[in-house]
Automatic annotation (TrEMBL):
Enzyme class: hydrolase
SUPFAM superfamilies: (Trans)glycosidases, beta-Galactosidase/glucuronidase domain, Galactose mutarotase-like, Galactose-binding domain-like
Keywords, comma-separated and alphabetical: Glycosidase, Hydrolase
Residue spans crossing the bilayer: none
Name of the protein in its database record: Beta-galactosidase
EC code: 3.2.1.23
Alphabetized PANTHER family for the sequence: BETA-GALACTOSIDASE
One Gene Ontology term of the molecular function aspect: carbohydrate binding
């Protein structure tokens, strides 16, 4: 450690936000820089006060050392800090990484201004060059730049040392719900500019084509120097009025160094998330002889953001915000994410109907905003401030005032030119205090073109005009509360939830109900699902270490390769930790979509269908800005008898919000039972985020309701049951018994249901046979399932019918068991069946309160693909509204089941108890046969791990449940 730093102890000095750091700006130097990424000499010290030794290893930059085979491993905590010290203090044991390398400073940079940029370092960065202290920076998710002109000699190598102290006063305001890491997590760059250079460029581009570009040179602009700009080759005029005023005012003209360019673009193509039209802006600083001293490139989107009344308008339109919260995350590299990975995240979000991102909870990698501009997303850009554990103490602590204003202002200075950024967020979960108001004040003055939001302020009153939030942006507010606010007559601000529908494990029940309310209620405009990623880190089981970059390719379709698993809190032996709460995204750690994404895609469908009885169907354009010409369609008619008819669909020419009636594409065939018409909507041509032919939505209407009633004649056989009254059947290794329980989902666990179920004894009721009655071809079996909280009488009547066995069941749920997981039958087949084919909702997983996106049709999937490998094993793989199914082996043997009514079923390789007993997938041993559940009722999933439980309509009622099915051998 270098003396000046250890004397200052900047890691326990919140007032010190930086030293020697250049101001943030929106001029991007990535293109002209020398990239210093790669292996650096590295040593990890136990504290910043320990002397650097000769024991160097190496570490890859950018990357967290916590993922690179050091003894300092990742730790996950949600609210609580990982150490007990009160802000601004930190523990004495404070891992400190020292990175060092020789950097060749090009000889041709002589006479130029040389700048070092460190993309991101957490949480304190100390910079030395050739032993001389150069700078300090905090703010772990924004770049820090230091001028090295006077420290290095072009043509000679310089020794750059970057010391990164893990714990600091700043950790207390970086207490986001995520893994704790240490390291340099974004690229390190070195670049040179002319001593006189473009210090900043501020672009304002409005939807009427008005363009203003303010260029700061910062420093006296010597005589004859000038700035020009062009927009896609069109020259931009100087602001003559400004120039004149400048010239008249001697105090200003000499040192202001500003140039203002103005233009009005006729017939401008406006930017929206649906139509991300960008123009290329180039700004040049010229020497008196016309040569170019500096250039800055920008992409400009012409658009307006405004709040009118209680509506947030984009280009005058009240748009729905179909958002997600996204962390910078990768299962191998933590917070270091490549351009390709970010692009893949955003492409996937586009394909699943999202149009907005909240950069929870810090400014993301700069490339993310470029991609959001280009692919079309509305971004809520959030400052790196979360003091969750000490929220109350810090929000008004003047020692942290600098840090708040610094972090918010630096984010705004960096990202102000992105059309995608429509709202600034002051941070997350940091209570509300004067430090927030100070930051908000800075933003409102500096950038009056965008609203400011902050959940902690909005919480003081959704309509309160005096708090630092222009948006009512609650988290996890129940639907009814949002609707009530919108109907109260008191709403003054747009209501857009900053977090809702918590995606932990098998979750997101009632998402469609949220959206039904949002679309039907003026004043409600959407929200951001919590969250995009399951932050599982790929871990070697053998030594418990993160796989790191060597883990590339060691996972597929959400499943870690043998010998590996997805680690969550506690898996690195860390104390304290908050377990699987880190796995709460709509994608698995390798970006495999969870089934909720299909639900979301349909909820966000740009094309909607309505049934006009026999006359036809109504097609609606549900977008805000686009016609339907980018889409194409195909009709599918699914009949219960197994037929699927298809026909090309002609999408009408509809403007946003318009509808048109079209005749039925098919004559409804006689017979065939219930009939479902689906419009398979795909991209007509390549979109930047989807090749032509990508499914966009699958809206569906039911054309005929009558299910096929098959009454099978009773056969002249008997059905065999054993001494316990259990069905004996050659295809079953476990006879159908009553099931009231499921392997608790994360919602069930954290919402308290699972504990109640265990107290009630639902997981292992004692079955007591009461009576067996035989009558002709039928056997009736009455049993009691004795739980700690009550007795459930269960009756099964097995009747031999032509080709199979009819099973009629009933269960009487006492009042004491008023919220069970399910009521239904479970059985287990012999080994052999590998394919499930069904008529019902699908093909992806669906549950009673998450089934809007699963159209009814004929579906088939291998048994092993039915199951979703949620990080912590839990109830998974359900299919809703199933009418009949077959379960077959490759040689076509197997069984078929016809259900008396559409039911929830599941088929997988695990008993509920197998899943409930495992903490990770590598502990599970699949059974040879299939475990089949047929449910008369199945509890909704809700989102109770954080937020509302499911609605009462999706609970399993007490009283008598009846269900029936026919089992046949194929
Ligand atoms: C919110 C918080 C998020 C995350 C989420 C639960 O309260 O803002 O960071 O913790 O809850 O997963
Ligand atoms: Mg938090």
């Amino acid at each position: 450690m270098t003396a000046p730093f250890s004397w200052l102890r900047p890691w326990e000095a919140p007032e010190v936000t930086s030293w020697g750091r250049l101001p943030m700006c929106a001029v991007d130097r990535r293109r002209q820089a020398v990239v210093l990424d790669g292996e650096w000499r590295f040593q990890l010290l136990p504290s910043p006060e320990t002397a650097v030794s000769d024991a160097w290893g190496s570490s890859y930059v950018p990357g967290a050392w916590t993922l690179q085979d050091t003894d300092d491993l990742p730790q996950y905590t949600n609210v609580r800090m990982p150490f007990p010290e009160f802000p601004p203090h930190v523990p004495a044991a404070n891992p400190t990484g020292v990175y060092e390398r020789a950097v060749d400073v090009p000889g041709e940079w002589a006479g130029r201004r040389i700048v070092l940029q460190v993309g991101a370092a957490e949480s304190v960065l100390l910079v030395e060059v050739d032993g001389r202290p150069v700078g300090i920076s905090k703010d772990s998710h924004l770049a820090a730049e230091f001028e090295l002109t006077d420290v290095v000699r072009p043509g000679s190598p310089a020794r750059v040392r970057l010391t990164v102290v893990k714990w600091s006063d700043a950790s207390h305001i970086e207490d986001q719900d995520q893994w704790w890491h240490g390291g340099i997590t974004r690229s390190v760059l070195l670049y040179a500019t002319d001593p006189l250079h473009l210090a900043d460029v501020t672009v304002r581009a409005r939807r009427d084509g008005d363009l203003r570009v303010d260029c700061a040179v910062r420093g006296p602009l010597p005589d004859g120097w000038y700035v020009t700009g062009d927009l896609d080759g069109q020259f931009l005029a100087q602001d003559a009025e400004f120039d004149r005023a400048n010239a008249e005012d001697e105090r200003v003209s000499g040192f202001l160094g500003e140039a203002r360019l103005r233009a009005t673009v006729p017939g401008v193509r406006t930017w929206t998330a649906e139509t991300p039209e960008l123009y290329g802006l180039t700004v040049r600083l010229h020497r008196p002889d016309g040569t170019v001293a500096d250039t800055s490139h920008h992409r400009v989107g012409f658009r307006d953001v405004e709040i009118v009344g209680r509506d947030l308008l984009i280009n005058g339109e009240r748009v729905f915000i179909r958002g997600v919260n996204r962390h910078d995350f990768h299962p191998l590299t933590g917070r270091t994410v490549s351009y390709d990975d970010m692009r893949a995240d955003l492409v996937l979000l586009k394909r699943f109907g999202f149009n907005a991102i909240r950069t929870a909870h810090y400014p993301n990698d700069p490339a993310l905003y470029d991609l959001a501009d280009e692919l079309g997303f509305y971004v809520v850009d959030e400052a790196d401030i979360e003091s969750h554990d000490h929220a109350h103490e810090i929000a008004d602590d003047p020692r942290y005032l600098n840090a708040f204003v610094d972090r918010v202002s630096r984010m705004v200075l960096r990202d102000k030119n992105h059309p995608s950024v429509i709202i600034w967020s002051l941070g997350n979960e940091s209570d509300y205090g004067a430090n927030h108001d100070a930051a908000a004040g800075w933003v409102r003055r500096h950038d009056p073109t965008r609203p400011v939001q902050y959940e902690g302020a909005a919480k003081r009153g959704w309509a309160d005009p005096d708090v630092a939030s222009d948006i009512a942006c609650p988290m996890y507010a129940p639907i009814e509360e949002c609707v009530a606010h919108a109907l109260s007559g008191k709403q003054t601000k747009p209501l857009i939830q900053c977090e809702y529908s918590h995606a932990m494990g098998n979750s997101n029940g009632t998402l469609a109900d949220h959206w039904a309310a949002i679309e039907a209620t003026p004043g409600l405009q959407g929200g951001f699902i919590w969250e995009f990623w399951d932050h599982g880190i790929l871990q070697r089981v053998s030594d418990g270490r993160p796989a790191g970059r060597a883990g590339a390719g060691l996972y597929e379709r959400g499943v870690a390769a043998p010998g590996h698993r997805w680690a969550y809190g506690g898996d690195f032996g860390e104390v304290p930790h908050d377990g699987a709460f880190i796995a709460d995204g709509v994608v698995l750690p390798d970006r495999t979509p969870k089934p909720v994404l299909y639900e979301h895609r349909e909820i966000a469908a740009p094309v909607r269908l309505q049934c006009l009885r026999h006359e036809g169907v109504v097609i609606g354009n549900h977008q805000h800005f686009r016609g339907l010409d980018w889409l194409t369609g195909e009709w599918r008619l699914s009949l219960a008898d197994g037929r699927t008819l298809t026909a090309p669909a002609e999408l009408p020419d509809l403007r946003p919000g318009e509808t048109a009636a079209v005749p039925l594409p098919f004559e409804l065939p006689e017979g065939g039972g219930e009939a479902w018409l689906t419009l398979r909507v795909t991209t007509a041509r390549d979109e930047p985020w989807a090749p032509a032919g990508t499914v966009v939505c699958l809206p569906q209407v039911r054309l005929r309701a009558t299910p096929v009633q098959r009454t099978l004649p009773v056969a002249d056989r008997t059905v065999e049951v054993d001494a316990d009254g259990l069905l004996v059947h050659p295809l079953l290794v476990a006879a159908p018994t009553l099931s009231l329980w499921r392997a608790p989902t994360d919602n069930d666990e954290l919402g308290g249901m699972a504990g109640r179920w265990r107290d009630w004894g639902l997981d292992a009721p004692v079955r007591e046979l009461v009576a067996v009655r035989r009558a002709g071809s039928s056997v009736g079996v009455l049993a009691e399932y004795v739980c700690a909280a009550g007795v459930v009488r269960h009756e099964q009547v097995f009747t031999a019918v032509e080709g199979g066995i009819r099973v009629e069941e009933s269960a009487e749920l006492p009042e004491t068991l008023n919220d069970v997981a399910r009521v239904g039958s479970v059985f287990e087949t012999v080994a052999g069946p590998t394919l499930l084919e069904w008529f019902g909702q699908g093909p992806w997983e669906s549950y009673p309160d998450r089934s809007t996106g699963a159209p009814v049709g004929h579906h088939s999937l291998p048994v092993d693909e039915l199951f979703t490998p949620y990080l912590r094993p839990q109830e998974s793989g359900g299919r809703h509204g199933v009418r009949h199914f077959t379960l077959s082996a490759p040689d076509a043997t197997g069984l078929a089941v016809e259900l008396a009514r559409p039911s929830q079923i599941s088929v997988n390789r695990y008993r509920a108890a197998d899943l409930a007993a495992a903490a990770h997938h590598d502990e599970l041993r699949p059974r040879a046969g299939c475990v089949v559940h047929i449910d008369a009722a199945h509890r909704g999933l809700g989102t109770a791990s954080c937020g509302p439980d499911t609605s009462p309509a999706y609970l399993v009622p007490t009283g008598t449940h009846r269900w029936g099915w026919v089992l046949r051998v194929l």
